[in-house]
Amino acid sequence: xxxxxxxxxxxxxxxxxxxxxxxxxxxxxxxxxxxxxxxxxxxxxxxxxxxxxxxxxxxxxxxxxxxxxxxxxxxxxxxxxxxxxxxxxxxxxxxxxxxxxxxxxxxxxxxxxxxxxxxxxxxxxxxxxxxxxxxxxxxxxxxxxxxxxxxxxxxxxxxxxxxxxxxxxxxxxxxxxxxxxxxxxxxxxxxxxxxxxxxxxxxxxxxxxxxxxxxxxxxxxxxxxxxxxxxxxxxxxxxxxxxxxxxxxxxxxxxxxxxxxxxxxxxxxxxxxxxxxxxxxxxxxxxxxxxxxxxxxxxxxxxxxxxxxxxxxxxxxxxxxxxxxxxxxxxxxxxxxxxxxxxxxxxxxxxxxxxxxxxxxxxxxxxxxxxxxxxxxxxxxxxxxxxxxxxxxxxxxxxxxxxxxxxxxxxxxxxxxxxxxxxxxxxxxxxxxxxxxxxxxxxxxxxxxxxxxxxxxxxxxxxxxxxxxxxxxxxxxxxxxx
Length: 482
What we know:
- It is built from ten helices and four strands.
- With 482 residues, the chain is α+β, with helices and mostly antiparallel strands.
- It starts with a helix and ends in a 23-residue tail after the last helix.
């Protein structure tokens, strides 16, 4: 019996190559909940919806956010990254399929009279060459390399979509916080103006009493100092309101003069609270967590691609067409050409390139897992900070409300005594000044609480919602919105 050496050589090559293939990595175990145990949650607290800012019932805020979402350059940049990733996924998918190409060419060439075969023996110097053909090229994906590459590209596209959602949420919360800061400044500015008026009256009374010799002139200096302090506060709040208006214009993407007319109104009530299922549901609600999870999925598929490089690559090429130097006979049966080329490629000596590439893919996977774990921890810290801040502000506002109530009652009592002629106007004005100070402190706390309220909505993912990727399957449409 003859020994078929070529078959033995090929078999040996296959066995030698396959023996060095690394084991397929299993899907990593990722945290499926965010550690939020022990944080206070509120009964009936709901997750924010996609238009969460409408809960504040503020048409001006709605208009500002609509303008920001339409005109933001940062969102345009994020959207371009999404489209780029989606197109990259399509390119990867297209490369893994069957490629069919048609070709047609016509060549007119002059032969050298002093060439290998002189033209005098051929009987012609010029000739035409016509070729028509269709070819196909197909690479068999027996080891799942192409499928893994497509899934890795889709994972990157999904991550880009989630990152865009994170950019949208950041813009929405920034506009809302700045708007509430502007409203707070305007409300405190109104109180500062009232304080200036009260301090001016107190200064006038102090001067009259000092001129009458009832008090020392030092009291005039003290009253002037109090008036200067009130005016300084008025200037501070006016400047802060102007700054926040400029920030709003920048966030919206227009010049400050192009902003719509902004009208101040009382600060809205707070609505946000921590849902009871936040620990579990936050994994799918935070766009940064979703992006990190898709990056892990993409990196895992990247290891599959690197592993498949160790295995034989089997492909087939075929060609059918016509070729003739007589254009009149180009389509005759005798001008037909056919070719069939099956091929197998197996790396044997690569200088360690395949193992280095595989090690690089594993390092990328480990980095993606570490990034995911860090994102989950950061999300827990973010939510916990916002919740505890809101709880602390809620208690402070309750205590401040008691102080405002007491100051209002003292002012009412002083005003009543003045009306009855029992005292001068000075005690009532002093009581009014203390009431204005308490109300200002209450407004400051209210503004801080609104900022924390918006921060908690952002920490809860806003209106984002997606299904985390499963290790056994990947989405097939990278351009779908999450």
